[in-house]
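## retry 2 of 3
previous attempt timed out at serialization; input unchanged, resubmitting
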Amino acid sequence: MGFVEKLLDNARKLNKKVVLPETEDARTLQAAATLIKEKICRVVLVGEPDQVRADAKKCGADITGCEILSPLDQKIAVPLAEKLYQYRKEKGLTLDQARELIKNYLYFGTMLQKEGIVDGYVAGATHTTGDNLRPALQIIKAKPGLKTVSTSMIMIHPNPKWGENGVMIFSDCAMVEQPTSEQLADIAIASAGTWKQLVGTEPRVAMLSYSTKGSANSADTQKVIKAVELVKKAAPTLCVDGEMQFDAALIPSVGERKAKGSPVAGKANVFIFPDLDSGNIGYKIAERLGGAQALGPLVQGMAKPAHDLSRGCSSDDIVKVAAFSAMMAV
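## retry succeeded, writing output
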């Protein structure tokens, strides 16, 4: 059984409930049908029930078994709007504005998660990352102990010698453009947590740079070195090392030469890139030239799992991210 199959099987056992707000999109409805049919998780769809069912019928999606909740249902929307007002009134949100905002499917879905009505949230097929994650950043916010919300990509390489049976995490590839040392430390800790939740084994975290163990000295390398120190202070039992070049982190013979004695060099499974440029470019090179399958981006570091899809995603991608969301809700 491969990594994805194991993931889906583990999600089934949890029986979590995931909200999919973008019911105007056929891919979302088709994913909902698959999730229910294969019993991967319970599904809540957002919208007017008659309209959602009609749209599902048009695209051949059997959503029997999905729960459909409407922002126009006053029994649900009114208490959610009042809660939203309480959460955001210090930021200047009025009760009237909250009542209007709750009609937005993304805010409605996020409030369902905030109030524990659902366990996970998946959207982004028809919205930009900024629009999709804005409600979660405002309402769900960062996990206690972390100040940084970031993303990770699950990379699955056909060669099992890389990472752990071919599975690796690359972070951050989609959110934090120029992280500080403190933000890099948060990203590393969150990524290690993502690894534990999804893979279940111990993470070995490489803090990447163009330098390995002092082979170069600049503000950029010092930023990574400081981040390593901060991670070790905040999470002393975490296996982490750096600064380190990618080949030294990945290949045992190179790691032995460049970082002899490192607990991570040559056997890393979690790779923390120093900025968004390198992370985004790196995962796409691994995917397009290296033949790895890239799953994500998965949002991490939030108090509850809220995930962002690529607007080019398939219904199968939505199914997988919903399974990730279910796993990360534990």
